[in-house]
UniProtKB/TrEMBL annotation:
GO MF annotation list: metal ion binding; taurine dioxygenase activity
Domain called TauD/TfdA-like: residue spans: 46-301
Organism name: Amycolatopsis endophytica
Listed name of the protein: Taurine dioxygenase
GO CC field: cytoplasm
Length: 310
């Protein structure tokens, strides 16, 4: 049975399908329609697919970046949304120094820290099977969600433990016309509670709620550097669409959440020791695959502070 939106659907009605992905050919544009692809002079870039994800060779993340190298890496990040670096035996301090080329670093009060408050440490061992993940964009419960993140694997399981990213500009581009017309201009509420309530005792949760109240962001944000329109709701933290009744909001959000599941918008990265990923949190969602239990998997992430979505 097709789950595509029927022609002429009225999006204010209950006809929007739950978890629907439109069928048919997809328009896969890596760049904004007015942007032209350019070559890279200071490193070798190997695309992992036609749309999202590229490996960078010839850059040593232990060394300070020159202004020209930083500019080319930023251009590659905007074009490919997530960059991968192999064989980078870097320390947490070098990881932080690399990330600071894009701005000040965030701290996350809900997650365990590594060697400093700016490093989030994700550790799973034989006694910690973990939770099944969901597609999400990091910290959209903040008024100014992260610009991006730099993740390195400290310990890699012998199999499994991949991470996937999805291009949410492509997801927006391929929405049915009726859906795009409906969601442009809408705003949604984002809250940390759905993602983190299971980790906190009630007293701590209440204090966190006072410190981090729900925030409102556009359902479709404009990327501040590329100008592309990007679908900006996610299942982990988006709770409702402002101004819609609950049934309509839930139905429309289920449809929008499902767009990250389209394989054509995705890249899947297989980690090896000393691999590093750097992604644009403004343009992507990601999903860490939980298929490696009982083997340990230890990762450390540094997040770069962002700006208010518009």
């Amino acid at each position: 049975m097709s789950t595509a939106l029927p022609a002429g659907v009225r999006l204010r009605s209950a006809e929007v399908p739950a978890d629907g992905i439109p069928e048919g050919p997809r328009r896969l544009s890596r760049l904004h329609e007015n942007a032209q692809p350019r070559t890279y002079e200071r490193f070798h870039l190997r695309p992992l697919g036609p749309l999202i994800g590229a490996e960078i060779a010839g850059v040593d993340l232990r060394a300070p970046l020159t202004a020209d190298l930083r500019a080319e890496l930023n251009r590659a990040l905007l074009e490919w949304k997530v960059l991968f670096f192999r064989d980078q035996d870097i320390s947490p301090a070098q990881q932080r120094a690399f990330a600071r080329n894009w701005g000040p670093l965030e701290t996350n009060p809900f997650l365990p820290a590594g060697d400093s408050a700016e490093v989030t440490r994700f550790a799973r061992n034989a006694g910690m099977p973990g939770f099944e993940n969901i597609w999400h964009t990091d910290v959209t419960w903040r008024p100014e969600p992260a610009l991006g993140s730099v993740l390195r694997l400290v310990e890699v399981p012998p199999r499994g433990g991949d991470t996937l990213w999805a291009d949410m500009a492509a997801a927006y581009d391929n929405l049915p016309d009726e859906v795009r017309e409906r969601v442009d201009g809408l705003r949604a509420i984002h809250d940390f509670v759905p993602g983190f309530a299971r980790f906190a005792d009630p007293g701590l949760l209440e204090r966190w709620q006072d410190r981090f109240p729900p925030v409102e962001h556009p359902v479709v944000r404009v990327h501040p550097e590329t100008g592309r329109r990007t679908l900006f709701v996610n299942q982990a933290f988006t709770t409702c669409i402002a101004g819609l009744d609950r049934a309509e909001s839930d139905r429309l959000l289920r449809f929008l959440f499902a767009q990250a599941h389209v394989p054509e918008y995705q890249v899947r990265f297989h980690w090896r020791p000393n691999s590093v990923a750097f992604w644009d949190n403004r343009a992507t969602q990601h999903y860490a695959v939980n298929d490696y239990h009982p083997h340990p998997r230890i990762a450390e992430r540094v997040a770069i502070a962002g700006d208010r979505p518009f």
